[in-house]
């Protein structure tokens, strides 16, 4: 009801602003990295596996895609991420030493549950879930679990469930790295420190809301938008595009920026806003040349940079700067700005933000 909304107009907005707190809650009590964060017996499981298979749908699938970048780079374990409804029906090659990870806000998504059962029927017994509902079917069905503490999420478009999943998946990355001999005590301490700082860092992104509102007025008049990211920010571009289409009904697509010239560049005109996620990482110079390709066709760039990105506003280039560069955890900050952009664009278009047409919060039938 209205009382629960407090100062917010929609649950989605409230849930976006709850993220500093629920990320803190999700990491509460984590004083060190250890497999047992995921349940008794996790050490033995992590010791036996030599690959990871992530199964999920929707927004949860995108947190899985982000985790692939983390796990392969930090823990050095190969990862496959599959859309549950595809995996359950395709002929795949099973491998018994696989850690099967399902990701689900509700823990009741029919395709994800069926994909888990399918994996098990193929002889893969090491199962772990990242889930927001402790009493759900998914948690009952998996041997290991990490329960995110996003709290009840009402808005159909997932926000706080996604960022808490990412926090849990980063813990999984570090735990796998540790068992795999890839995490020194010093690195562990640095990562824990960065994680503890997340609530403050996210609050600083939320404070950019007025600048994002100014952009959303342009977006509300568009029918198409392109989102670009590279590396671990490519899944964040996908999630940003999903948020925008779900609630504002603006057609949005996301591409890894290096793929621009293989198709989407044909769509770029003066009418096309191109949202670019531009943290100051190893790919920034490559990304800048992708941005020039867009500008050369008249495309309007809306760039989420960070303090050190060295990208300046100018003709057709709008820049919002995130207050800090956050290394491996940067996807968790960048997605918050995209959630706000989608929310305010939808608000400006007058859509039913919390209950977008044709969509359900939880898809419990196929
Ligand atoms: C629906 C929701 C999405 C969600 C997806 C997967 O499509 O609208 O927000 O990401 O289901 O749900 P799950 O509960 O498994 O994360």
Characterization of this structure:
With about 375 residues, the chain is α/β, with parallel strands linked by helices. It has 15 helices and ten strands. The chain has helices spanning about 1-5, 10-15, 20-25, 40-50, 60-75, 85, 110-120, 135-140, 160-180, 185-195, 200-205, 210-220, 235-250, 285-295, 330-350; strands at about 50-55, 80-85, 100-105, 125-130, 145, 225-230, 250-255, 275-280, 300-305, 315-320. Strands 2-1-3-4-5 form a five-stranded parallel β-sheet, with helices on both faces. Strands 7-6-8-9-10 form a five-stranded parallel β-sheet, with helices on both faces. Helix 3 (about 20-25) runs parallel beside helix 9 (about 160-180), helix 5 (about 60-75) runs antiparallel to helix 13 (about 235-250) and helix 13 packs parallel to helix 15. The longest helix is centred in the middle third of the chain and has 20 residues, at about 160-180. The radius of gyration is 20 Å and the shape is globular. The two termini are about 30 Å apart. Bound molecules: 6-O-phosphono-alpha-D-glucopyranose (G6P). The site of 6-O-phosphono-alpha-D-glucopyranose has 15 residues, from helix 5.
Instruction: Give average pLDDT, whole number.
Output: 96
Beta content comes to 15-25%
Radius of gyration: 20 Å
What percent of the residues sit in helical stretches (DSSP H or I)? Answer: 40-55%
Ligand list? 6-O-phosphono-alpha-D-glucopyranose
| Strand order in the sheet with the most strands | 2-1-3-4-5
**Main pleated-sheet profile:** 5 strands, parallel
Count of individual helical segments: 15
Elements, N to C (H/E): HHHHEHEHEHEHEHHHHEHEEHEEH
Helix/strand class: alpha/beta
How many strands?
10
Rounded to the nearest angstrom, the distance between the terminal CA atoms is 30 Å
What would you call the quaternary organization?
single chain
Which stretches are poorly predicted, pLDDT < 50 over at least 5 residues? none
Shape: globular
């Amino acid at each position: 009801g209205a009382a629960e909304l407090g100062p917010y107009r929609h649950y989605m907005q409230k849930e976006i602003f709850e993220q500093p707190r629920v990320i803190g809650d999700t990491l509460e009590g984590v004083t060190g990295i250890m497999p047992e964060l995921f349940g008794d017996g996790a050490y033995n499981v992590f010791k036996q596996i030599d690959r990871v298979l992530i199964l999920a749908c929707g927004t949860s699938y995108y947190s899985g895609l982000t985790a692939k970048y983390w796990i392969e780079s930090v823990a050095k374990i190969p990862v496959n991420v599959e859309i549950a409804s595809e995996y359950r029906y395709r002929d795949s090659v099973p491998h018994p030493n696989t850690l099967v990870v399902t990701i689900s806000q509700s823990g009741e998504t029919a395709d994800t549950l069926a994909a888990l059962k399918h994996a098990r029927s193929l002889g893969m017994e090491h199962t772990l879930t990242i889930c927001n509902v402790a009493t759900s079917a998914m948690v009952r069905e998996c041997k290991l679990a990490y329960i995110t503490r996003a709290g009840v999420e009402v808005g159909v478009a997932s926000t706080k469930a996604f960022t808490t999943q990412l926090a849990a998946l980063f813990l999984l990355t570090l735990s796998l790295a540790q068992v795999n001999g890839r995490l020194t005590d010093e690195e562990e301490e640095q990562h824990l420190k960065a994680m503890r700082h997340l609530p403050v860092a996210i609050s600083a992104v939320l404070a950019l809301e007025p600048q994002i509102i100014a952009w959303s007025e342009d977006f509300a008049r568009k029918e198409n938008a392109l989102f670009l990211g590279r590396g671990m920010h490519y899944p964040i571009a996908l999630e940003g595009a999903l948020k925008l289409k779900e609630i504002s009904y603006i057609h949005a697509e996301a591409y890894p920026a290096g793929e621009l010239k293989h198709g989407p560049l044909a769509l770029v005109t003066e009418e096309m806003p191109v949202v670019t996620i531009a943290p100051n990482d190893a790919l920034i110079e490559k990304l800048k040349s992708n941005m020039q390709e867009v500008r050369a066709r008249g495309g309007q760039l809306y760039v989420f940079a960070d303090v050190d990105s060295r990208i300046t506003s100018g003709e057709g280039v709008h820049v919002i700067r995130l207050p800090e560069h956050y290394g491996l955890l940067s996807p968790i900050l960048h997605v918050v700005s995209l959630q706000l952009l989608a929310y305010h664009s939808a608000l400006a278009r007058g859509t039913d933000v919390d209950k977008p047409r044709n969509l359900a919060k939880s898809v419990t039938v196929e």
